[in-house]
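Translate structure to sequence.
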């Protein structure tokens, strides 16, 4: 065997090794990405792509998921009618963002007539979606929410007032969707206050855009939805719930009754309307 033959064989051997290692690392990224998304639905390893009229291509998830209905119709409606919505997506996740200015008047937690009209249109499409949806409430700082005259009373409540505000707003959206026929067992709620900003917190204009409610669809949560739906039937409810090798207790400790409206009002919020 000549020297060139030996070098060719060695090169071929190393190419095979590199190819095998690349496949393994890809599989590891998929596993870790799926686990991370389970506990942090607003943080994705694959970047989301804003939807515009120049960018209409949706990368479909593989397999049977292509036959299930997601928020594609809403995306097309945004493109057709230039609705006041922001839509971003990647292979597994779709995020529909609605600015709080559209849904609520300044400093309020009840939906405005304009907000109700918009959510009524969205509910028609969301009722037919086959995936579970996460409603995530976000707010900015209290002066961005209530005006520069707002004065924060330090240590007046245990919870952050921005978190309480985002919670009350996302609850309003949840209740409205349920009243319009969106299945409650397909909806989750989370409130993040000012602590999950999407835009720059150092610029006033950018901070305003952080005031939003996100509707998040994660195609990897479909199995979770099936299990949660089965829990709503008349079958006996087990004490534990297994999800992706994690065990969760279904028996909840008693929760103290607390009027969140009163807690929010106790902040002595003095904002302009």
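Result:
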């Amino acid at each position: 065997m000549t020297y060139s033959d030996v070098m060719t064989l060695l090169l071929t051997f190393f190419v095979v090794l590199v190819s095998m290692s690349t496949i393994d690392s890809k599989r590891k990224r998929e596993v870790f990405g799926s686990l991370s998304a389970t506990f942090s639905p607003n943080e994705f390893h694959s970047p989301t792509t804003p939807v515009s009229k120049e960018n209409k291509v949706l990368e479909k998830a593989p397999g049977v998921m292509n036959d299930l209905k997601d928020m594609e119709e809403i995306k097309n409606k945004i493109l057709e009618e230039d609705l006041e919505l922001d839509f971003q997506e990647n292979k597994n996740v779709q995020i529909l963002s609605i600015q709080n200015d559209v849904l609520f008047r300044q400093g309020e937690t009840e939906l405005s007539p304009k907000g109700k009209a918009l959510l009524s249109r969205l509910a028609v499409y969301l009722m037919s979606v086959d995936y579970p949806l996460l409603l995530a409430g976000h707010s900015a700082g209290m002066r961005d929410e209530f005006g520069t005259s707002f004065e924060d009373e330090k240590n007046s409540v245990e919870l952050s007032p921005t978190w309480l505000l985002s919670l009350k707003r996302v609850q309003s959206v949840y209740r409205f969707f349920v009243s319009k026929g969106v299945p409650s067992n397909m909806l989750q709620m989370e409130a993040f206050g000012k602590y999950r900003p999407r835009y720059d917190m150092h610029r006033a204009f950018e901070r305003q855009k952080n005031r939003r409610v996100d509707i998040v669809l994660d195609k990897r949560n479909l199995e979770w939805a099936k299990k949660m739906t089965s829990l709503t039937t008349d079958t006996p409810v087990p004490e534990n719930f297994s999800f992706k090798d994690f065990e969760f207790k279904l028996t909840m400790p008693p929760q103290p009754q607390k009027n969140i409206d009163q807690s929010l009002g106790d902040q002595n919020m003095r904002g302009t309307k």
